[in-house]
Amino acid sequence: MDNSTGTGIGARVRRKEDHRFITGKGNYTDDINLPKQTYAYFVRSPHAHATIKSINTAKAKKMPGVVGIFTGDDIANDKLGGLICGWMIHSKDGSPMKAGPHPVLAQGKVRYVGDHVALVVAETREQAKAAAAAVSVGYVALPHVVDVADAMGAKAAIHDVAPDNRVFNWSIGDEGATDAAFRNAAHVTKIDLVNNRLIPNAMEPRAAIGSYDTGSESYTLYTTSQNPHVARLVISAFHGLAPEHKLRVIAPDVGGGFGSKIFIYAEEVACVWASKHIGGRPIKWTAERSESFLADAHGRDHVTHAELATDSNGRITGLKVHTKAAMGAYLSTFASCVPTYLYATLLSGQYNIPNIYAEVDAIYTNTAPVDAYRGAGRPEATYVVERIVETAARELKMDPAEFRRMNFVTQFPHQTPVIMCYDAGDYAAALDKALEIADVKGFADRKSAAARSGKLRGLGYSAYIEACGIAPSAAIGSLGAGVGLWESAEVRVNPVGTVEVLTGSHSHGQGHETTFAQLVSDRLGIDINNVAIVHGDTDKVQFGMGTYGSRSGAVGMTAISKALDKIEAKAKRVAAAVMEASADDVEFKNGTFTVKGTDKKMAFGEVALSAYVAHKFNSAEIEPGLKEAAFHDPSNFVFPAGVHICEVEIDTDTGVTDVVNYTAVDDFGNIINPMIVEGQVHGGIVQGIGQALAEGCVYDKQSGQLLTGSYMDYQMPRAANVPNFNLAFTCTPCPSNPLGMKGCGEAGAIASPAAVMNAVTDALDVRDVPMPATPHVVWKMLQPMKKAAE
Amino acid sequence: MENFNYVRPAKVADAVKAMKKAKDGKFMAGGHTLIPTLKQGLASPTDIIDLGGLKNTGIKIGAKSVVIQAGTTHAEVAASKELKKAIPGLAALAGGIGDPHVRHKGTIGGSVSNNDPAADYPSACLALGATIHTTDRKLAADKFFTGMFSTALKDTEIVTAVEFPLVKKSGYAKFPNPASLYAMVGVFVAQGADGSARVAVTGAGPGVFRVADMEAALSRKFAGSSLDGIAVKSKGLNSDMHASAEYRAHLITVMAKRAVEAAK
Lengths: 790, 264
Ligand SMILES: Cc1cc2nc3c(=O)[nH]c(=O)nc-3n(C[C@H](O)[C@H](O)[C@H](O)COP(=O)(O)OP(=O)(O)OC[C@H]3O[C@@H](n4cnc5c(N)ncnc54)[C@H](O)[C@@H]3O)c2cc1C
Prior knowledge:
By secondary structure, chain A is an alpha+beta fold. Chain A starts with 17 loop residues before the first helix and ends with a helix. Chain B has 2 domains: about 5-50, Uridine Diphospho-n-acetylenolpyruvylglucosamine Reductase, domain 2; about 60-260, 2-Layer Sandwich (Uridine Diphospho-n-acetylenolpyruvylglucosamine Reductase, domain 3), CATH 3.30.465.
């Protein structure tokens, strides 16, 4: 089907939402102002770890404009519950993870720089900030630890429940069988890797407006959330603020999240709670950028040792991995599942590895919490697998592409030793295409040419696989998830034939208003401009699980597709009644209902109107109206995969690494809108290049302070740091959803760090270079080589 | 940010008067250093005296020197066709400051008055042997820059222009801090009318400084190869998470060579 010019599936439709966004007409939380609104500012801990001896608010309360000041005592007195971690992980020994208390405002202790100590509410933001500076807190500093490598058993005991700072010691795979594979191995490759801590940096900082209606005794929270229904569920069921029907959560336009806006945070909960205590006046909080650095959940931060066993033919026979994963000072909403079920289950990569054993220690540190960040666990897994596979190929003196090819999974379905069952794929096809586009044959010449001008060229592969659309609910429930991971949709056809789709997915940059409308336009044969996508409001959409893990296409759109099936079936019955035919004889194509063997026909809009006027059918047999809903609980994850090839050039005088070529061949199954998919891939690759070469969150060991607390010190990747990308696609449709879709939101960020670092290590001819490979880091690596050459 | 009184005088004399009257006044030019410091609460002046009303912008190329008015933005300096011919290194330097927003607001007067140890202009001033014109006097760049964020300016003194002597050749090479894009190491080289060379380094130390060994070598022969084997000692250079003192010292030689090679 060639849909390149239409508005249906497969068409490069321009994003419907962009005009609003790029002309400054978006409606973000901070754009919203409610009558009698007040402003919040948080008093934050300047210490990495300290006990709170006293909080004196007397002076601050007298400052101009102050409406109220709240501390942990107020939260405790009101019995507002603490923040939760929604996925129970059990240690190898069967004991449950050690979740320390996570109060909305600190109670007795602070555990990282930026921890929330008090909430100051005033008439203006400036007044709140000034008063916050006047709150005097008596701290007694405690020993602290910020590096995950040092944290287990450190002097700093961050939570009483975990005196050695270990949250859990979890494992997956068969240890005995894996050890046996290593005993029989012809060769073992070993590697130590650090997956650097990242700060998410969504374009829009977090924000919230909490308000309490004293008349209806109900709360409303506007918030920058990727999943407003989950926020409502948690605030209702766990914080105990109000039952769900008394709490409305609205996530209007949201300017990016990358995972960091999945979680339920203290600030948002505090604002909506405190509104009741100031007579129902709304409280607005908008994070300053420096607060985003300090208190958004960070990503990654793993320290890993891995070993790969191969036989004498170069076939992989086993993989052993041990990872220390930082959790930060508290367990954030989904923190525990990231380094476990979202990470270790992907350690088989694209390879047929008969034996895998992985052990993960999750560890508290005196830092901002760590949780899902673009890719969530899969970038970390890909980094381990693709770095060790590349290293093994080099040790075995095999071509890294061919070493991969001979170990690829080729038969589907493929059950890995780590839970996942891959449903479809053609990894060799992606590799072939990538080799060709990247002109790997010509690399040797390019390398010599670079050498002539004193530059080092390197080539790196990343044959990644990832799992999107986390599912099915029953299976993840058995693994400890506190929620189900289905999605809901409601399709409302209006009497004139225009359509509203209510979805539990949430768009914060992904372009749902366009892609979801393309599906409807395609299925119902109506103008894409006659379709509106409604999301992000718990009063409009009944329930939904939100957007993360590239689930909105495979799961969210499948729910819409199912609802559309029901719409079509009902519309056929209406059309049959109106056209006086049997429903079985009615056909629906390109927006027109026809009766087989006759010239009778009705347009979709006419049928919609007939459904609502209900003149032509017996309402006892057919209910009036045209509105259907569906829930979709997928039977499996979907498994996007692909091959990325990165070529770098290193300036040995300065240590600067230039990404000179980047090729990505991805299999996302069927694609709804290639332009949007390419945009997702571009963004993902840039983020991954950022992780590899630029971004790195640094806490000072001595003081526990965040050193990279602003853009002066935290390097984001810039347009000038990346080349034009060569993108191509292969397609093996996903068998587990009717649209044959996989997911594309994270693939770029998952694949690219390994591709870049394999290229950098190739250029430098070393085993490892720590990320981010900044010019300074690379220059330091070059010094011993230069000495050796002299 | 605290409240302050705001004035925008049209005459230099009125600006000086306003400053004398203020309890704790601050001049403001492009505001691209000042406003961020106000926002972060690092400064809370009682009075802001906006120099924008003076409208002292423009670049005049004379027989022996170029005079750039203090209020001239980095973008104007970078775009000046005449300057690109007269002192190409200076125009190139201005074109590499910050980003387009910064270049369209930030001014040469603000930059030299602020004397950020990682700012670009101070290196050009020092290497070209510029003279800073103020409301009170004319000061040689060597006397004007006195250390990290400090200058010889008195509280009520305003920079009105910067005068650069015409040189045979000038070039600038900057290794930006990868996060902030300020100079981690920036080196400006100039070959004067009499053939003598001057080399000034910014970003690497607590303040902009000259490198005598390099100047001597380049005065003998103005070529990149003249700098082979000449290194600045790392002792006393800045060392932070972005770059060790040793790395900065190494980059000084690399950037100096590149500046010489780029010099026109
Ligand atoms: C994101 C960003 C990136 C930047 N990157 C760079 C960079 O790469 N390289 C670089 O060199 N700079 C950089 N800057 C700084 C920029 O060039 C500033 O604008 C400049 O240093 C100050 O000039 P201004 O006109 O904005 O001065 P202002 O901010 O208005 O003033 C700065 C200081 O100088 C004083 N002052 C201003 N004008 C006068 C005067 N005529 N007489 C006496 N005192 C005066 C003020 O009182 C104040 O103390 C960057 C700034 C930002 C925000």
